[in-house]
Amino acid sequence: MLAGKHILLIIGGGIAAFKSLDLIRRLREQGAEVTPVLTKAGAEFVTPLSVSGLAARKVYQDLFDLTDEAEMGHIELSRAADLVVVAPATADLLAKMAGGHANDLASTLLMATDKPVLVAPSMNVRMWEHAATQRNVATLKGDGVLFVGPTEGSMACGEFGFGRLAEVPEIIAAIDAALSDGPLKGKRILVTSGPTHEPIDPVRYIANRSSGAQGTAVARALAQLGADVVFVTGPADVPPPAGVNVVKVQTAAQMLEAVQAALPVDAAVFAAAVADWRVASASGSKIKKVNGALPVLEFAENPDILATVSQMTDGRPPLVVGFAAETDDVIAHATAKRARKGCDWIVANDVSPETGIMGGTENAVTLITETSAEDWPRMGKDAVAQRLALRIAEAL
Ligand code: C5P
């Protein structure tokens, strides 16, 4: 897929810059051409010689390098590529991009380009979580900039959290998706997945058995058709797919907030198994065992995320798809659910224990629309996801 593609790779300053060397290697192995641009800070972490050696091309560094301007102006440089990739993208680079600065070669190229831009952020967790960075990220997403990562993990600085550069295969999958001419290219699609965890106290929670397998497969299938996928996931058993923007949440309330923050989208698929109830007032400290006395939990109803989004009067996604797991009278119940919640389609399945579907690898679904109920044969969850993604592509 990458053969013959031309990538302009901007390497920002950061300890993760060394991974850009591997990225260049892997991209070239797949037949892509890589034109590297090294920021001043980037050059503190990797040498121009190793970058240009691996890219087998000149590395561009300075806006005022007259030789470069004579050979190829910065406007041309920014547009000769099929895709501009920024990896690692520092907090500073994101701020410059969001603010429209053009005071060095990298920021000028990013302002001048007419090509899609994919950024792979990498920074300390506090810097990533800082309100300013989050504001900049939201602005850039609104501008259509694509993101891969950051991921969660331990950092070179000794802290733990979000801020790690996405792994090279993940960046390549995102590049692939960004360059794919799939039918969903240019479409932004939200997918919810996994269970939610509703706290009882700081160490206990209420959950369900959803593995997140079907939602993850849907997100992957949509990304493979070229969609820009926002994947809002509860604590699932399976890792999120490569090449999507992952938002991790724990509770239904957090999931609703993340979903609302992701709007507007062209379509939304609600595959998460959201807990219907939460503990009305979760204890701030661990509930103690007191002789003979049993704790009493009072419940409160969680927001219905699917219904909330389906019934939006302003900014409702043009296509809203829900899932319905039923154990009896599947079609009748799911048809009523579609009407009650106000979504466009419901993917209904029978999760009676004898079907082995819940937690299994296969699914047998019925796609219910306003006018039809279409039975699909039993197939792998990936195949269900691919078929659903194609249907979404046809509908958008
Ligand atoms: O009502 P039920 O839970 O069976 O509906 C299932 C559908 O509704 C799924 O698409 C699920 O993601 C969504 N849902 C939701 N928020 C809830 C409960 C369910 O989005 N609180």
Question: What does the model show?
Answer:
- By secondary structure, this protein is α/β, with parallel strands linked by helices.
- The chain folds into 2 domains: 6-179, Rossmann fold (3-Layer(aba) Sandwich), CATH 3.40.50.1950; 188-395, 3-Layer(aba) Sandwich (Rossmann fold), CATH 3.40.50.10300.
- It contains 14 helices and 21 strands.
- The chain has helices spanning 18-29, 48-55, 66-71, 74-79, 91-99, 105-112, 125-129, 131-142, 168-179, 213-224, 252-262, 305-310, 330-341, 381-395, and strands spanning 6-11, 33-38, 83-89, 117-121, 146-147, 151-154, 160-164, 188-193, 198-199, 205-206, 228-233, 245-248, 267-270, 277-279, 299-301, 319-326, 345-350, 362-363, 365-368, 373-375, 379-380.
- An 8-stranded mixed β-sheet has the order 12-11-8-13-16-17-19-20, sandwiched between helices.
- A hairpin with a 4-residue loop joins strand 19 (365-368) and strand 20 (373-375).
- The radius of gyration is 23 Å and the shape is globular.
- The protein starts with 5 loop residues before the first strand and ends with a helix.
- The model has no long low-confidence stretch (mean pLDDT 91).
- It binds cytidine-5'-monophosphate.
From the structure above, extract its key features.
Rossmann fold, binds cytidine-5'-monophosphate, five-stranded parallel sheet, alpha/beta, eight-stranded mixed sheet, 2 domains, 396 residues, 34% helix
Summarize it.
The chain is α/β, with parallel strands linked by helices and 396 residues long. The chain is built from 14 helices and 21 strands.
